[in-house]
Amino acid sequence: MSKIKQYIENSLRQQQFRRQYSGYLANKLVDELGIKDGSELVPLIGLGTERNNLEAVETWVYYVCSDLKLSFTDKHFSTLLCILSPVVERLSADLKLPTTASHQAGANS
User: Fold this and answer.
1) What is the pLDDT of residues 24-43, one digit of tens each?
2) Disulfide engineering: 62 pairs with which of 22, 42, 44, 108, CB 3.0-4.6 Å?
3) Alpha carbons 65 and 6: distance in angstroms, whole number
């Protein structure tokens, strides 16, 4: 196998891993922030093509990790949470974004 072909295959595998791990991190963020089903976040933090809030968060994670050169691991979960939490809190207040009561109670403490 040529070095170029091997490089391309490795790049494709890395990109697929990043996308899959973005989904994992997005699920954790959605759970932690109490974001419910809906599509309110799609035009605000996604690209506009996502089907729901979870997919919008997944897109957000992918681009934030890529832009900030963060590894796609749990190591930076708290960083992602610190960045996204005030955004979701503000959108929740402004747009009545549905969140779970436990998150709202924690945010008001």
Assistant:
1) 999 999 999 999 888 999 99
2) 22
3) 25
Q: What is the pTM of this model?
A: 0.79
Out of 14-18, 56-60, 64-68, which region has the weakest mean confidence (pLDDT)?
A: 14-18
Of 83, 53, 87, which Cα lies nearest the Cα of 68?
83
CA distances from 94 to 10, 11, 57 (A): 43, 40, 18
Does residue 62 contact residue 81 with C-beta atoms inside 8 Å?
Answer: no
Nearest to 30 by CA among 91, 96, 99: 99
Closest CA to 106 of 25, 34, 27: 34
Query: What is the end-to-end Cα distance of the chain in Å, rounded?
Result: 59
- Which contacts qualify for 98-106: CB closer than 8 Å, 24 or more apart? 98/35, 98/36, 98/37, 98/38, 98/40, 99/33, 99/34, 99/35, 99/36, 100/34, 100/36, 101/34, 102/34, 103/32, 103/33, 103/34, 104/34
